[in-house]
Input
Amino acid sequence: MVLASLFAALTAVCAWLSIPIPPVAFTLQTFGLLLTLGVLGGKWGSISILLYLLLGLVGLPVFSGFRFGAAALLDATGGFLWGFAAGALVYWLLEGFGRLPAMIGFQLVCYGCGCWWFSVYSGSVGAAVLACVVPYLIPDGIKLWLAYHMSQRLRRHLPK
Output
């Protein structure tokens, strides 16, 4: 439980480290989430991510741009936030195939939820993909690679 709480806090710090590029800010949030899942695994990683989302929902400014509350979950980029919860569950389901495929599954679900919700606001799935996915493929690939390798090292130091 302590590690789940610490990783929720780490995710908040990673969300605050951002470059506000409209319409979707570039953050280290997904790095924090992927590291959380990679280190804690599907069950405790999902709990940590749900805790992070709950903290933001009740009013702590843990989301990118120090946003919080239901408004952050319902604005144009809110689909990414609830996509984190859905992605964590997909990670948990795919974990038996290995951490790397599970991390890729998490990232794909985040893209899917975020693009779908953004397309509700933009009126176009194509525009959503161009705005929310294409510019982030390389940076997100780097974050995924770093989280995967860092989680391998960190897991060695945790009690079994």
